[in-house]
Amino acid sequence: MAIEKMEFVSVTASRDCLDSVLEKCCESGCFQIESAVASASGSGERTLQLMNDKNPYDVPFKGLVSIATELGIELSETNYSACPLESGADFTEFIDSLEESLAEASKMKQAAQQIISQRKAALIQITHLHGLNAQFDRIFSCKHVHVRVGKLPLESHRKLDYYDQNFFFVPFEHDRNYCWGMYFCPKNDKEIVDDIFTSLYFEAVRIPDFVTGNTEEAFQRLESEIAEEEKNVAKADRELKNFARVHEEEIQRAFSKLCHKRAVFELRRKVGVLRDKVFIKGFIPKKKHKDFEQLFAGLPGAALTFMPPDADSSCVPPTVLKNTWFTRPYSMLVEMYGLPDYTGYNPTAFVALTYTLMFGIMFGDLGQGFIIFLLGLIIGRKVHKNFGGMMTRCGVSSMIFGAIYGSVFGFEDLLDPVYESIGISFLPLHPFHNTSFILLTAVGLGVALILISMILNIIIGFREGDIEKAVFSNNGIAGLLFYGSIAGGVAAMMLFDVKIMSAPFVIFFIVIPAVCIFCKVPFAAVVKYKEFRLSNEEEDMTFGNFIVENFFEMFEYVLSYVSNTMSFLRVGGFVLSHAGMMLVVSTLMNMVSTGAKPAVLVIGNAFVMVMEGMIVAIQIIRLEFYEIFSRFYSGSGKPFEPVKAGFSTEIE
Amino acid sequence: MLEKYSTNAVAAKIRAVCGRMLTMDDFMEMVAKRSVAEVADYLAHTPRYSERLRDIDPNTVHRGFLEQLLDEENYTLYRRLTSFSGLEDKPFYDFLLKRHECRQLINLVNAVSCGLQLSFVQTLPSYLINGSRIDFLALARCRSVEELTAALKGTRYYKLFRSFGRTPEGKVDFTDAEIKLRTSLYEGLIEDVEKSGFGRDGDELLSLIRSEIDVINIINAYRLKAFFGYTPDEIRKTVLPFTQMGKTSMNKLYNCPEAGKMRNVVAASPYGRYMSAEDDDIEPPLRKRTLTTMKHTLARTCAAPVSLYAFMYVCENELRNIVRVIEGVRYDVDPAMIYKLLIF
Known about the structure:
By secondary structure, chain A is of the alpha+beta class. Chain A is built from 21 helices and ten strands.
């Protein structure tokens, strides 16, 4: 239950066999490629540079997507072994041949669509001219009269009365903002009247030449033309459909291969080149060493060099979590928070144990736990493996604690005779009869988990050589002593009436650790660097600032110790809430007739399972992330993403 | 008692409308647009103006018409807010109509004096054609201020027009006309507030109005001193006779021998809060100060008249900002420069 060991691999090959090398990298399924050059410094023939070739498959890719869209073909991944095309030019030629065959039908469709769109635009224009009964062509051919059709803002329409120039405006209709109409004036006054209308924000509309006759006639003609062209579009569509039916398989094959080729070529952006040699570097899991080596055995132009993962300081090794069958589903939660560093600690086992335990405590019911277990099995097979796995584990835990509480589908007394018959007197542990015990146990569990988190932080701190983190921080040895002694002292006093808070105890386990936390930076600096400094970030930190800053930090730490501990009360709270909700279900069941009782039981149980199950699951995630992870875990690792030539229809 | 609740409701409604106003982010996006059409399209997709600009075609709309529509939206909003609780017939609540009337009358005197009636008609807001008791279109037919005065007989502006001073050439003194019209507007507003019995809310409202007047007076005095070298007495003749800061303080300002000193006096006064040595113009920081006061008032008050007055100022400022953006985009001004001109 640790982190998978990785190996740094450097591949050197001649430029000719670059494509084969990249193909092999993809084929391996376990190689994470890294940029061969860390920064873009230096240029020229003597420096290693990243390859920056233009992808020759980009243009055919776009072309094929566009053809497939035109033909209504839904592109999907297909076996392309029978596809003979190889280079970008081959694909371009293939696309050209397709386009040639499509040209006639495609042209016919485009021309028809263009006419339809023009006619529709004209229809919209003349929709507003319903009041005009005269012939358009006759109006516009007047010799001495200047005419303009268009729309005038309603505000401006009211202002027209003010003008006494030689014009008149004929309104046809109006909408919320504009009045549609046309104005007439003598050709001699054209400039003045046009100026007036322009200043009143009149927007002229151009009636196309193909619109003739009066409005009604124009309408009819345009509509019949649109209908005619729509027939042409339908005819072209039929032809395209037939073509698609014949060529679909060929197109799918070509596209799948093109996608693969394009994706592999895209990897070149991370490949370094120096004269006729190419350099590829990346990581593989150490256990795949032999497979990877074997894969390249048949490629004489390529040489592999395996090194430790920290061989190249410019590349951070990726993290792959190594888990057992029990903990594996919980890696989902760890990934959600962020992966650990390659050299860090894998907390999945800790999460698996605490999550399962807390779910069982908070949602203890033998019957409902069994249902969750069954649902987990189904979901794990059909929907989501990890989520289903978590459900089965939580279901079993819920069943165990359900047996302890004596709760089966909300019947709290069902297991009483069983325990009586086998002679266990302290079980079942009915929540409502043991409220204080449950709440105190929840707080105790919280204290224990916080202390374990601190111990983990101390171990990680020592492993990283971080004295401040391991010894002097609020989650280091000082914090552990401070928090542990206060928690232990209070527990001993309240539960067992033992007074351990003597003066030496307070001085050694509370005051000195508190001083250590307060002065963690200077103390750590003295231990590590043998020098005195008040802050790691600010060189000119004064004593006054130091005291103020650390006073508030200390205050926050103490507050967080209290609030984090109290936060675990919710574990006990949910035990009571579950029992309470099931009590409501059984009360409702007693209120209805005998025939309706099973329905109430089933619906009530289903409701509690869905609602409370979800709330409990979320609350535990919250406890894990905020109260536990925040003490020792940073989640700043890099995920392992092996290269692959994926299928995609998206044009970037 | 019920009236009190209805004014609370107006204030609450105003706050709700405030939530739809354009934000600084909206302006940042608008200044980065490349054409007026893009700005119009952006505005048409904001909750604030989407309804008003629903039917316009952003690609063809004239920017003058666009500005007219936005101005109309503000006025319609004001009418809706006043009619919401049946306040439109009560005194003071017609303040925006009176303000627009006053502005148009000042424009009209100018237009008639210069023979620019056509331009006046083009820019005349339609809500004044429909909503005002004054027939502006008929007034625009007048050929002289005397005709205008005669045409206004029977209105409350008749006496005022008759009192306009004359230049030595016998023409109407435009500056005097403007001051008298503005003085009459604010006199009427203050009188309405005092008569309306708003109580403590009335005091707050008066303080807002007088502060606004102070800012107008300071800006005018500074301009007259800086650009025309007016003497203190000449400045005193051009200012509006109301003040919030006090006559002594304002006189101290007017008595400054030069613009630089005047600037220092303003900077030391309560209105100089946003002034800095780098500002070339004193108008933006002063307007920003008024805007901030109005916004604070809006956030705090529950009184309808105070809330409405402050809100309409904020709306007008938003419109001024939009107009600046439209003009800036139209003339290809650098987005950073346009943004700098906006007042938030």
